[in-house]
Write a structure and sequence with these properties.
Structural class: alpha/beta
CATH class: Alpha Beta
Bound molecules: S-adenosyl-L-homocysteine
CATH topology: Rossmann fold
Strand content: 25-35%
CATH architecture: 3-Layer(aba) Sandwich
Mean pLDDT: 95
Order of helices and strands: HHHEEHEHEHEEHEEE
Distance between the termini: 37 Å
Helix content: 25-40%
Radius of gyration: 16 Å
Low-confidence stretches: none
Length: 219
C-alpha cells in the first residue's frame, strides 16, 4: 500500500468523505463532481507539512506566492463548467499544484493546462501523474492567449483573476462551450460564465470569489 496516496488520519478516505459531505451541505449539487472529489487524494497536491489540512475548507499556500483554491471553489467552478455533462476537451489556465486539473481530468476527454511558473508546473506534473491522470497535457506558458493550435475547447476554466475576458479565449471556445473565470481585482472579484451559442456569447455574473491575479509572461 502506498501510504502517501491512500493516507492515514487527517489524510484518510474518511476525512475526504467528510469534505464531500460538507461540500454537499454548502450547496454543491453535482453528484458526479462530488464523487470525483471523494476519490482524488487532495493531500498529495500539498506540501507534506500542510497535508493534514488538505481537506479543510480553506485555500493553502503552494509556494511562489500562489495558493490552492479551497475545495468549495474547485467544486463550484467544476459544477458550473460541467452543467451536468461530460466536459469534452478542456483548457485550464493556472495549473498551480494541479488539483483542479486532476478533478477536470476525471470528468473530461482531454485537459490542456497552462502555468506560467516553471517550478510550480514541475511539481504539478508529478502530482497529476501520481493521481493517475493520463489525459492531461501541461504547458509552461502565459495562458492569457490560450492554446490556438489545440482549439476549439468545449470548456475553458481560468483559476486566476483577470480584469477582463481575454479575446483569444472567446475565440478558442467551441460553439456550445462554456468558459468560467474570476473577473475583477483584490476583494472585488466575481465568477463569470460565458456560454457560446451559434449566434452569440451570453455572459452571466455569478458569486463573489477570491483568486490570485492573472499575470503576464513566464518565470
Ligand atoms: N487551480 C490551481 C490554482 C492555482 S492559483 C490549484 O488548485 O492549485 C493560480 C495559478 O495561476 C498560479 O499558479 C499562477 O502562477 C497561475 N497564473 C497566473 N497568471 C497566469 C498566466 N498568465 N498564465 C498561466 N498561469 C497563470
Amino acid at each position: 500500500m502506498n501510504v502517501r496516496i491512500s493516507g492515514i488520519g487527517m489524510t484518510s478516505q474518511r476525512t475526504r468523505l467528510r469534505m464531500v459531505d460538507r461540500l454537499r451541505s454548502q450547496g454543491i449539487k453535482d453528484e458526479v463532481v462530488l464523487s470525483v472529489m471523494g476519490t482524488i487524494p487532495r493531500h498529495i497536491f500539498i506540501e507534506e507539512a500542510l497535508s493534514s489540512r488538505a481537506y479543510e475548507d480553506t485555500a493553502l499556500p503552494i509556494g511562489f506566492g500562489q495558493t490552492i483554491s479551497n475545495p468549495y471553489t474547485v467544486a463550484r467552478m467544476t459544477e458550473i463548467l460541467r452543467n451536468g455533462q461530460d466536459l469534452g476537451k478542456v483548457l485550464e489556465i493556472g495549473t498551480g499544484c494541479g488539483y483542479q486539473t486532476a478533478v477536470l481530468s476525471k470528468l473530461s476527454r482531454e485537459v490542456f493546462t497552462v502555468e506560467r511558473i516553471s517550478p510550480l508546473l514541475t511539481k504539478a506534473r508529478k502530482n497529476i501523474r501520481e493521481a493517475h491522470c493520463n489525459n492531461v497535457r501541461a504547458r509552461h506558458a502565459d495562458g492569457g492567449i490560450g492554446i490556438a493550435e489545440a482549439a476549439p475547447f468545449d470548456a475553458i476554466i481560468m483559476t486566476a483573476a483577470s480584469t477582463h475576458i481575454p479575446s483569444a479565449l472567446l475565440q478558442q471556445l467551441a460553439v456550445g462551450g462554456r468558459l468560467v473565470m474570476p473577473i475583477g481585482s483584490g476583494d472585488q472579484q466575481r465568477l463569470h460564465l460565458i456560454e457560446r451559442t451559434p449566434k452569440e456569447y451570453i455572459e452571466t455574473v455569478l458569486e463573489a470569489v477570491k483568486f490570485v491575479p492573472l499575470l503576464g509572461g513566464v518565470v
